[in-house]
Structure formats: structure tokens, C-alpha cells
Amino acid sequence: MTTASNSTKLKATDSLDSRPSIFGRTVTSTFRKGFSIKHKPPGNIRTCWIPPIVFLSVICNIPALLKLRFYLKKERKKHPADDVRILFYSDNLDETNGIANNLRNVIPYMRAHGMKAFLAGSAFNTRPCGVVENSYCMLLPRMFSMEQLGYANSELAIPRISPALRLLKRYPVDLIELETPSPGAWLVCFCAKVAGIKVFSHYRTDVPTYAKTLVKAKWMHTYVLKLMQIFYGMARPVISPCDDYADILTKELKVPAKQVKILPRGLPLEKFSPDMRGKGTWEKYGDSREKRPVRFSFIGRISKEKNLEFLNRVWRQFAARHNDVELMYVGYGWYLEEIKKSYEGDDSVHFAGEQGGETLAGLYADTDFFLFPSTTDTFGNVVVEAMSTGTPAIVSNYGGPRSIVKDDLCGRILPIDEQKWLEALEECREIKLSKPELYQDMRKCAHERSLMYTLESSTRAQFDYFRQLKKDYYKL
Prior knowledge:
Layout: E1 27-30, H1 44-47, H2 50-60, H3 62-76, E2 85-89, H4 98-112, E3 116-122, E4 131-133, E5 137-140, E6 142-148, E7 151-159, H5 161-170, E8 175-178, H6 183-194, E9 198-202, H7 207-214, H8 218-234, E10 238-240, H9 243-251, E11 260-262, E12 294-299, H10 308-321, E13 325-330, H11 336-342, E14 349-353, H12 357-366, E15 369-372, H13 381-388, E16 393-396, H14 400-405, E17 411-414, H15 418-434, H16 436-450, H17 455-474
């Protein structure tokens, strides 16, 4: 086993992770073991421990950060202004979610096309030490972690600073983009400012809405909002993927409009194709005894903030009227077992679990209509992936997904109203069964619309913006 630190010593009996392996992720090296506080359960008061721990960590490392500051200043003079080196930091890389999946596609693409991009986050508490996955994704060893309030299988973590400093000296960067206002991002933000590195952020998670949806204590909602206002005050400019969240940034989080930059996101669409349709993937997970001609699916993280309680209420009413429709849930999350239990004995609903690769692409393609009622997604990777396979998408009228679907020929954009969704599902069923030409037009439109979100177009726009940020900040 190679290591990310030459002082790493692992025993043959050491386990790198007690969790099942995640599709497409391979440990290629490890960090050394170090001190960490025992992982903690969720708690409102315990969440308030995080700011003091972050500040103490920064204060204890100020001498090393100042030393790094002078080193990076000398190092930066050796490189031309257009040579941008950027680190993307996100705490949640050691989980399965849209942010992690997107970044794990974007950064390898950037690196393969000559862009100097790095990716870092915190290792999950089940790892005895930090690791590097696929030779580019650095999951730093944690110092503190706790379960996230209202969000099982996810955690709030603070990484150890010393391994990060060694990495920054080995791989100097000009910019750091923070993906979420997580504890680790706060720590990185403060450290970057002391070390003289330009830091900015990307609004990828609708945290205020998550807090209202998942956390019962109302004072926590105010606490979270205030912390976010401070965070986005420090980490500017802020990138937003759509107009809806640009408005939230300016109105709720008090970010000046001139400090909000709308940039497109991109996905590896070559993995998803209409050609994957009809290859028997759906039949592996559906009811093989009875083929139902109209197929719907939800693919993504199975959790309540995706508005799945609403979807289940609508589906039960819809499926009670017809015996020729079925719904497939694809993904994993803390709400999965509860949904499975609620559908016991209902043969209109199937569960494929967490999937990737050709299986995932096949399930998207075999779906007739993709259902995504979430109102908390700032973009909607799964919506683009579904449409890339030619599957029309039915989405809510709030957040990033509605900007992707755009018009009725690619799917439907609906308010969160059960009657409206029931009417739309009825219309979808009618189109699939009785209007084949219209349905094929919808499939064609969905696929063509998805091509706006390629990695090539998005990364080119991002790096043009990053070069300008570097020139402005360092006055080059």
C-alpha cells in the first residue's frame, strides 16, 4: 500500500474502511494515523462545539500557516498569470451524493485536459486514517466528527490541519473553491486567508431549507442562517448554478449581487445514452411476472429533503387507478427502509438499490418518465443524466431542475400540488400509451437539451473565470 505521507505506518491487519465499497472508488494511498476525537452522535448543543474547535485549530497552526504563506508567495512568482492551480474542497466527498459524484467527474476531466485541479475533503469516521482515492481525491484524516442533525449516514467533520499543510506545500494552489458551508470548509477558509490563498465558494446545497426540513429545533434554523451569512461573507464571490439560488444568496444570505456569478455545471454525458434503452436492465429489478407498459423512476439519494413523502402520496393515488404503471426507486439513503416498509405488498413499486456504470445508465434509459419532486436541489445532476438517455423529466417549479427541463416538450415543471402531479402522471401515461409520436419527440428534446451540460463547456467557462479571479486577487 502506497502512502500520501512517507511517515505513514499501517499494519497488515488495519482496515481502511468498515463500510461497503462505493462504486467507482478505489483507495490508492493512505495518510498516517493521528489523533482524533471519538465520533459523536447528533445533538443541537454538540453542534455548537464546532466553531470553538475550528478557531482553536487555526490558532494552534498560525506559525505553520504564516510559513506556508511566504512559501506560496515565492512559488507563485514562478508561474505565469494564466497558469491557475485550484483546489476544490467539500466535506461530503466520502459519501454518495450529487455533489461528490459531480466533483469526482469534473476534476479528473479537468486534469486530463491540462487543467491543474485538485480535490479534497474529510475522511468518513469509519476510516482509521485518511486516504487518497483514484490517485487524485484526498480524504483528509479527521480530528472531530459527529452525525449530521436529521440526516443519517452523513456527518459534520473537521479535518486535521497538518496533513493539509504538507499537501499544499507539495501541491501549491492559487485558488480554493469551497463547495458547502461545512465545518471543514470553515477551517479551510480561515487557514487559506492566513496563508494568503484566494478562497471563494459554490452554492451547491440549500442548507437553510434542509435545516427547516430536517431539524426540529427552531433556534437552530436561525443559528444556521446566521452562520451561513458569515460564511458567504468571507468566501466571496459565490458561484450559483441558477437564478433561483442567486436570488437566495442576495436576499437571504446578504451576498451583493455583483459578488454572485452564475456558471453552468457539466456532467460526463458520454456515460448516458438513449442507446442503453431496451437492453433488459429494468427487468433485472422490476416485476418479471408482469410487464407494465408505463415506467416511472426516482433516482438519487433516498431522503426526505428530496420531497419523497409527497411523491409517495401522489403515487399511491395514481397506482390505485391503474395496473399498467410501475415506479422504480434507485439509490440509497436513510429514508430507504421506511419507504420499503410502507410499500410492502405493493407490486407497483420496485427498489434497485445503489447503482452505477452501465446498470445505472440502463435504468435511466428504460424509464419512460423521470420523477424528481425535490425543491432543495441547486442543480439536479440526476435530471440531466435522465434526459441524456432520452427520458423526459417531471420536476418541481423551484430550484435548479426547472432550469434544466425548461419547457413542456422535455418534461413537465409543476408546483408542489398533489392534484397537479396526479394530472401530469395521467397525461404521461396517456402520451406513452396512445401518442407514440409525441412521446418520441419528448425523448428527442430531452436528449438534445441535456447536451447543454457537457463537461467540456462547463469546465472551459469555469477556468476562464478562475484565471480572471487569480489576476484580480493577486494583481497580476
